[in-house]
């Protein structure tokens, strides 16, 4: 079965073709970073309009790369949420319409399920069950995963997502959008001794997160220390606190579930310090950690094509009406 995946939930247009036998055949991505940079963040209306411009040309490109004609496609998967509703509607409308025109089934994919399954695109994928840490711009979640669609959310952020906290703190430090990678670069010049930020919610039981306090702590530190080196020192302390907190909660999730496999995905999983910390932590526990390749840590079409393939193969498909929802809990997903 050969499936097209379309991702348009935020500021990347990603399209990919996944084949059950030959695996990932091709994927293309257009990032809108340059478009939104001058506004310091994603402008929803600009995002939607750019997706409208890019989806069909990228589709032609990916089909050419995969040597695939319309007649070879057996299903279409599109991201239906969560995300920016205007942006989602572009991918959903085009994806559903193409499937109708081609006479094949279409399936609506949960963006975070895409991230969660992305490491399964790699060589030596993890077996189920595993614990997944999803760390993106919109979500921070720990999920027990027993199979496709068998998800149990163990904990999540009660306020800002980890990526959102990175982005907001980066903005405060005068760094561009998206802030995560820029903050990590600045932190590399930081003095480890200067500031210490707390590890929120680690001294009580549970697997929920809260990152908005760290952002406030950064605001206060910036107000009190105006020198240039202070910016790097604050970036250092902030990154340490976020990464340490994530590692502590992952360790707790592995211990509490008794599972030996940890999957880490979403934009922040590209962070080098996080990878170092999780490598050491899992090594200590005798557990294994799995990531998508770097380019599939952030938003992409391949993860949507793969999740779509898994669900379409199991017989799931959507009626002709389509939907896109800005908020959508993974607890509402069922196995296909
Ligand atoms: O998964 P993603 O591409 O989009 C969402 O679904 O939100 O994640 C984007 C987020 C942004 O907040 C970005 O700043 C963060 O991932 N990010 C990073 C790094 N690379 C991307 N945060 C910290 N360190 C990085 N190296
Ligand atoms: Zn994402």
Describe the protein:
With 336 residues, the protein is α/β, with parallel strands linked by helices. The protein has ten helices and ten strands. The chain has helices at residues 33-37, 44-65, 85-102, 111-117, 162-172, 179-187, 212-224, 228-257, 272-285, 302-313; strands spanning 2-7, 12-19, 23-31, 75-81, 106-110, 130-135, 140-147, 150-156, 261-265, 288-290. The strands form two sheets. It has a five-stranded mixed β-sheet, sandwiched between helices. A five-stranded mixed β-sheet has the order 8-7-6-9-10. Helix 3 links the parallel strand 4 (75-81) and strand 5 (106-110). The mean pLDDT is 96. Bound molecules: 5'-O-[(R)-(carboxyoxy)(hydroxy)phosphoryl]adenosine (KG4) and zinc ion (ZN).
How do the strands and helices of this protein lay out in sequence?
Layout: E1 2-7, E2 12-19, E3 23-31, H1 33-37, H2 44-65, E4 75-81, H3 85-102, E5 106-110, H4 111-117, E6 130-135, E7 140-147, E8 150-156, H5 162-172, H6 179-187, H7 212-224, H8 228-257, E9 261-265, H9 272-285, E10 288-290, H10 302-313
Parallel strand pairs: 1-4, 4-5, 6-9, 9-10
Antiparallel strand pairs: 1-2, 2-3, 6-7, 7-8
Zinc ion binds next to helix 4.
Structural descriptors:
336 residues, alpha/beta, five-stranded mixed β-sheet, 10 helices, 42% helix, globular, binds 5'-O-[(R)-(carboxyoxy)(hydroxy)phosphoryl]adenosine, binds zinc ion
């Amino acid at each position: 079965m050969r499936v097209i995946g379309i991702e348009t939930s935020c500021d990347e247009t990603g399209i990919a073709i996944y084949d059950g036998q030959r695996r990932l055949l091709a994927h293309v991505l257009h990032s809108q970073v340059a478009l939104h940079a001058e506004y310091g963040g994603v402008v929803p209306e600009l995002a939607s309009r750019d997706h409208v411009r890019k989806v069909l040309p990228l589709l032609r490109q990916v089909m050419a790369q995969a040597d695939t004609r319309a007649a070879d496609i057996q299903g279409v998967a599109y991201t239906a949420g969560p995300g920016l509703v205007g942006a989602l509607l572009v991918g959903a409308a085009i994806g559903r319409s193409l499937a109708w025109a081609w006479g094949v089934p279409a399936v609506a994919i949960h963006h975070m399920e895409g991230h969660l399954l992305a490491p399964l695109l790699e060589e030596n994928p993890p077996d189920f069950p595993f614990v997944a840490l999803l760390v993106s711009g919109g979500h921070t979640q720990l999920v027990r995963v027993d199979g496709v669609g068998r998800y149990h959310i163990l904990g999540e952020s009660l306020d800002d997502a980890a990526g959102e906290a990175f982005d907001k703190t980066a903005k405060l430090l005068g760094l561009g959008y998206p802030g995560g990678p820029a903050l990590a670069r600045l932190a590399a010049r930081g003095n480890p001794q200067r500031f210490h930020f707390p590890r929120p919610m680690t001294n009580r039981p549970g697997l929920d997160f809260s990152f908005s306090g760290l952002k406030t702590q950064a605001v206060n530190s910036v107000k009190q220390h105006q020198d240039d080196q202070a910016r790097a020192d604050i970036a250092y302390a902030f990154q340490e606190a976020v990464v340490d907190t994530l590692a502590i909660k992952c360790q707790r999730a592995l211990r509490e579930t008794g599972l030996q496999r940890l999957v880490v995905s979403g934009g922040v999983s590209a962070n080098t310090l996080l990878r170092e910390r999780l490598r050491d932590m899992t090594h200590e526990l005798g557990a294994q950690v799995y990531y998508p390749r770097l380019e599939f840590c952030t938003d992409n079409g391949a993860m949507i094509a793969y999740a779509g393939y898994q669900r379409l193969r199991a017989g799931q498909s959507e009626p002709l009406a389509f939907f896109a929802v800005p908020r959508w809990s993974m607890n509402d997903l069922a196995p296909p």
